[in-house]
Write a structure and sequence with these properties.
The protein is α+β, with helices and mostly antiparallel strands. Helices cover 53% and strands 13% of the residues. The strands form three sheets. The protein has a four-stranded mixed beta sheet, with no helix packed on it. It is globular, with a radius of gyration of 26 Å.
Length: 426
Amino acid sequence: MIASVLEATNLYKAERQVLRNKGASGVDGVRYWDLPDFIRKHRTKLLTSILDNSYTPDGILGVRIPKGQGKTRLLGIPTVVDRWLQQAVSQQLMTKFEYDFESFSYGFRPKKNIHKAVLQAQGYINDGFQDIVDIDLEGFFDKVDHSILLQLIYNKVPCPITLRLIRKWLRSPIVIDGRFYKRRRGIPQGSPLSPLLSNIMLDVLDKELERQGLRYVRYADDFSIYTKSKSKAKEVGNRVYVFLRERLKLPINKAKSGIRRPVNFELLGHGFVPIYKKGIKGQYQLVVSKSSWNTFKRNLKGLTKKTKPMSLIERLDRITQVCRGWVNNYRLTNSYTKLKKLDEWLRNRLRYCIWHDWKKVERKRKNLIRLGIKHGQAYAWSRTRMGGWAVAQSPVPGTTITISRLKRKGYVPMIDYLNKEQTSIW
């Protein structure tokens, strides 16, 4: 195994992947674009240290990112060199494990995605499996037992050098606010290995659910089981709870877990609502969950904050990236009306930013004249006592800072992404 990991072609592919992924620097401050030079200078020495077991990975940089509702998620960012080596190991481990993973595991796998997971869940629900066991693993990436995970890897890859290498990465200390903290459990989110390692761990659960003949969907640590009665759901939930506790030593967040009906159930940001049409009974369609709408609007609000120091072009570019990704993620839902309304709100936010950027009264007057407003009206509006948000929603900006003018600067209405032809998810 280690020979295939350190093979030149595999290392080159790993290097290209790290460069494509970009990403932040680790604790050593080395940037991703410095990786090729480092490899050229230190490759032989580094690979020799792996083979003679003298290689020691650097610590992991802990970074907290907002999770919503005031909560944060801790990401662990390895150094660029460690990311390169982890990517090389991940590529080879994938060849050993991928074909044995179960078909209803959709997270971080080739030709699998969120859309297929959500459609599978919708299919179960529309087939009558509407009592859903919704299980939330409590801090899964922080609670994984290293000994169980390493044993699962060793069962398929009996290579001591590779196992030692993975164990070193798992045990690397994490640096948070300049302080080192030991790690004896968990998989650091943010490393190239973490998605595959999580699938290796939870594939044991998948196989148990398959053995019991249950209908389920799993995307990384997010999984749900679909049954036809509440009593069956309770029975299945208790069995799975015991299995996770005894076999994998993974705790369940009881506050967030439970038995749901489709209208109270969310999967990967998607909700399910009944179809109210004559002759259609017990069928559900996909919608965007309320929490996903709120998060999206909060992100757009942050990007259109008037005091955020950026040019209009840069602001529009970042908005485009966020909107394109979000709309593509929820393209299976019927969200045209809401997106159209959100577009109107976003354009007013942009007009507010532009009005604020003009700052001085005389500059506002001149810009309004350039945009076609008569001199007297421009003079009056430039000196208005209305607040900026009220001005943004008034007729003058709406008839001067038009949609066509915003488009010429780079603005793309969200509904335009819905109208574009989508590639097949299958």
